[in-house]
What we know:
The chain is α+β, with helices and mostly antiparallel strands. It has helices spanning 19-35, 60-72, 107-120, 130-138, 200-214, 229-235; strands at residues 6-7, 13-14, 40-44, 47-51, 75-76, 82-83, 96-102, 159-167, 170-179, 183-191, 224-227.
Amino acid sequence: xxxxxxxxxxxEKENASSPKxxxxxxxxxxxxxxxxxxxxxxxxxxxxxxxxxTERVCQSESVQSAETSKKSGMKHDIGGNCLxxxxxxxxxxxxxxxxxxxxxxxxxxxxxxxxxQLKVHNDKPDNxxxxxxxxxxVDTPLLFVSPTGDSTFPPCGFGSFHQQYLIDGKLVVxxxxxxxPKCLSxxxxxxxxxxxxxxxxxxxxxxxxxxxxxxxxxxxxxxxYYLATIFTLATR
Length: 236
């Protein structure tokens, strides 16, 4: 039989489901996508670290896609998806919003969290209470620090936040995050189980990476993105 464990630095073997091994395996498929976002990625002691190096933009794929489209006559959307049929232009437009709120209890968020835990993680209804939710995702040891208006703060300030993703005004995703002087750390993510086909976890990760890059001109010390949520999901 194959032994899935790997030796650690002290000679002991690590279980294949340990955060360290999971992080090292996840870095491989994420690397191409992250490089195209102008970031670098590496596994370190059970965490996946994203960092923003000096200016570097992945243009080869977009240039190649543009050349292919020009030759074939096909049109592509901003995500590179082929719009080969006129039906793509007849799809109803949706309003997409992202709101950044300070960590607090929101009944709509709790209702979405309850549905997510029941359908995705098969939790028992009795285990999903407002008290447990409050303790897990609302209470925080971080003190909120208001922005001062200078170049050392992002507009939201520092502290714990809930990023709400809405489609046509309906709450579909909540990302629980900490914003610190050097990083954005993802604590947890829950989403509408009926929309799992949209790969909302991947989308939120890209949005959070984009948030770090977009706020570096407000707060130059922002360099890292910690995707802690993925280990919570992978080890349950």
